[in-house]
Amino acid sequence: MIYHWASGTDTGKVRGHNEDSVWPVGTGADSAQLVVAVADGMGGHVGGEIASKVAIEAAIAARDAPARERVLIANLAIIDEVLENPRLAGMGTTLTLAVLEDDGSMDCAHIGDSRAYLLRDHRLEQITRDHSLVAEMVESGELHPDQAAAHPFRSVVTRALGLERSVDVDQIAESLRPGDRLLLCTDGLTNMADDAEITAILEGSGTPSDAVTALIETSNRLGGVDNVSVVVVDVAAGPSSADETGG
Question: Rounded to 5 degrees, what are φ and ψ at 162?
């Protein structure tokens, strides 16, 4: 497979600083392994920004490790950072990370309320599950899904990195196909735009870079109340895939 990717992050229209981190940065194409990730920090101006940055850097540095192990390593890196700098106590971050292999297999690990989506055959599927108070209320039947977007506690997460040494990390496996489009994003996007709007943008944007720009602009146009970060990856057949299919 060949992965064409783009990423972007923006402070938004309300907040004065950006606590998100994203990987990789910019645009590119890879036919070997590609690791993509978004993190949404919490813990104040300094703490949140540091937590998300430390998490991303530690996870990316853990070369050849599976996705879940990378997230666990990121968790310990944040805790070690707090031990060295006690003023950062209480900082944490979400982390959604996917390892994409050249054969199309995807290993995804996730904690918090950032998300991974897969657009395939005009259908958008959220492949991660939000670890948030509102998501749990919807799942238990206490809250109707239509009420979730406007709930005052919609940003309260029930799992995050950096708060405890032992964390529960979700792991998702997926087989990607040529024509798939993958989206990783922080809740700065999903709290502003619904799935229908996101689908329309992903389907109507030519390149990953076009999609990233449109998603961030839409979040800001709809209010931009939070930092917003996105990674978009297009999956295309590589030379070996074409040979196998007779193309």
Answer: 95, -5
